[in-house]
Specification:
The chain is about 85% helix and about 0% strand. With about 140 residues, it is an all-alpha fold. The chain has one domain. The longest helix is centred in the first third of the chain and has 34 residues.
Amino acid sequence: MPQDLQSPEIQAFAQGFPITLMHAGVTILILFLGAGLYMLLTPHREISLIRDGNSAAALSLGGVLLGLSIPLAVSLTASTSVVEIGIWGASTVIVQLLIFRLVDLILVGLPQRIQEGEVSAAALLVGAKLATALIIAAAVAG
């Protein structure tokens, strides 16, 4: 039985799992910081709207989380160290937030329509955010 604990597979897992947790933790932290920054930049308060039952705000914020996480996931796969994850992760979040803001400006009136609970406006915004997320992710992947 003690020999099983010395198998190369178990040793590789024992060495790699803490690193995996650290890489995932750093990436999730960047996701939460990016989402928090996004919520500070938006003209409406999604969390309050969601607590009040606004489905459009929930859909919009869900799209933001997906839109930020797609490039972060690709950045995570392209990185080999925590520093690299931090650099790629932060840069993709910054680019995504700039593009999100640009989309909000181009699609005039959508934030107000989301605040009023219009799900169709939120769906369009989510589509635009996911489309840009996929493009940024592909750019990171090279």
